[in-house]
Amino acid sequence: MLFSFDLHYTWQAGRRLNLARPAGSGDAWLIAGIAQRSRGQQQLLVVVCASPADTVRLQAEMPLFDATLRCAVLPDWETLPYDTLSPHQDLVSERLATLHAAQTGNVDVLLLSASTALQKLAPPAYLAGRTFFFRQKDRLNMEQLRSQLTVAGYSHVSQVMSPGEYATRGGIFDLFPTGSATPFRIDLFDDEIENIKTFDVDTQRTIYPVREIRLLPGREVPLDEKSRTLFRQRWRDRFEGDPSRSAVYRDIGNGVATGGIEYYLPLFFEETASLFDYFETGRSLTILTHGGVDESISRFWADTHSRHAFLSKDIERPILRPDELYFTGDEFFENLKAHARIHLSDAQGAVRAETVAHGLPPLAINRRSDDPLMALRAYSQQAGRKVLVCAPTDGRRETLQQLLAEHGLQPDCVGTLEEVEHQSGPLALVTADIHTGFALKTDDSETAFVTETELFSSSPRRSGGRRQQERASNVDALIRDLAELKINDPVVHQQHGIGRYLGLVEMDLGEGIAEFLHLEYANGSNLYVPVAQLHVIARYSGADPEAAPLHALGSGQWEKAKRKAAQQVRDTAAELLNLYARRALRQGHTFGLNASDYEAFADSFGFEETADQAAAIEAVIRDMTSG
User: Fold this and answer.
1) What is the pTM of this model?
2) HSE of 328 in the Cβ direction (CA atoms, 13 Å)?
3) What pLDDT score does 10 carry?
């Protein structure tokens, strides 16, 4: 690291150390220093963040300060408690890969959110017993392998596209293992693995050879016969009434993983596990809590109790109690007491590192000045200070280098912090995804990390609002839309198509009064949808809601409309592929890009772009400058 991390305090099991949280992204520098010391003592550093966004940010920022650290994020499911949607397969893949790395000791820093740390998990034996390897020249029994993949939760498909899928074609076996970034193609000579290669899911062409494959389970719940039998038995013991009335119970009996099955995970196992059960035996832990973890846990439990109270009335989809799925805050903090603890805090009395991280002065580019970079120039020329400008990508680094050069600043381009110490100039440029700048100051020197956040702080498009917008929950937006439904508004039902919303009605079907959405369809047909099934209803987005074409129940109109739309999508995709193939064969004109003029033009836009607009702008610039 650029600065040694030195505290006159040794953290040890059963004790808690309060550290002052540095300014900006200085927390990534501080955590990297703590991780260095923990690794030297054969300890695993577990960072529990109040905000899930901080886990992703810290993982991106820490490699600048120590690229040798093996950092992994245990992501959240990104679904609401008791949701009827399962987590995205990519998230499940990343979670299982991270748990396997923790189990085998192949991680130095584990980052996760407070809500994720509360989850009750499948026992470690489930993951260990369903993880195996393929190597070149191994013998492969295809029937046995298919059976193993089915037990592990993999899906047999005609063409592999996402993690947890496999396909067979003669002597070729395609497989996308959970936890892998790429799928693999296994060529067999009789029953021997002749070679293994990665391939591209879009073109289906092989890329490069590998010697072995690690195979993790396809999901976090097992679907083998023994586990499904246990699930059904525990369901009958746990819930009253006729189990055959529940679609979840019937689907599991048929070996189908219904949406949201993860929220019934405890029914698949005799005992569940905590995150602490997954750590390598004999390896001590250092637990670092980042931000308001206590408050985050309290909010999560309040939201979970609220959703449980709302959804527990559905007799066709009974749900488990919150304490059956999650550890309470008290149980979580009780588990921490056995380990060394560090808390990053803004409270008075917190210990500070000898190298102090503080904020930066205003360094924004002033387009109206004769010298737009005057603030940065003056700041970098002060004695004993080095300024490192951080660009998130190589492309942005080149743009910033050109911008600085146009105003007489010639930064040294470096790849690591170690190179900065050997540079004679006061200004350097590096590719590093640092979110917010800060400065590290010792008795005789200072190094400042400046990001685009500081340089373009006066521009709405650089203010960070877009990042917040990208993180906004689509689920929240959906619930808000449904709450705004008015009488006679057209809506779309997933199975029955377009109907008209006539309000909420109460009905007693023999098991107590329940609320239903009253939907009217063509020919005066009526459909009553339980409030607990709001997820199957969406707002009609056609041009004229008053003239929305209502479908007839049971007529097949909706299925025909969906098939027609799917065909149009395929036709449009084929046209686009043909267009882009022809474009790729032609040599275009390469336009020059003046970074200073472009930034001045962009800053004159007084609004904040959406994520889609920003992506489109970057794609157009990339296309015009590439020829």
Assistant:
1) 0.69
2) 6
3) 61
- Mean pLDDT of the region 78-100: 89
**210 phi, psi to nearest 5 deg:** -135, 165
Do 531 and 540 contact (CB within 8 A), yes or no? no
Both tokens assigned to 562: 């969906």
**pLDDT tens readout for residues 131-164:** 777 788 888 888 878 877 776 778 888 888 888 8
Calculate the alpha carbon distances from 287 to 44, 59, 113 in Å: 8, 16, 13
Report yes or no: 396 and 622 within 8 Å, Cβ to Cβ: no
The closest alpha carbon to 238, from 313, 309, 321, 123, belongs to 321
- Do the beta carbons of residue 593 and residue 625 sit within 8 Å? yes
What would the pLDDT profile of 535-569 be if each residue is shown by its tens digit? 788 878 776 778 888 988 888 888 888 888 888 99
Nearest to 283 by CA among 99, 41, 33, 112: 41
Phi, psi angles (nearest 5°) of residue 559: -65, -40
Instruction: Report yes or no: 316 and 247 within 8 Å, Cβ to Cβ.
Output: yes
Phi then psi for 33, rounded to 5 degrees? -65, -40
Residue 565: Cβ within 10 Å count: 10
Q: Give the integer Cα–Cα distance in Å for 104 and 281.
A: 9
Q: Identity (one letter) of the amino acid at 501? A: Y
Please, are residues 267 and 246 in contact by the beta-carbon 8 Å criterion?
Answer: no
Q: Is residue 387 scored above 80 in pLDDT?
A: yes
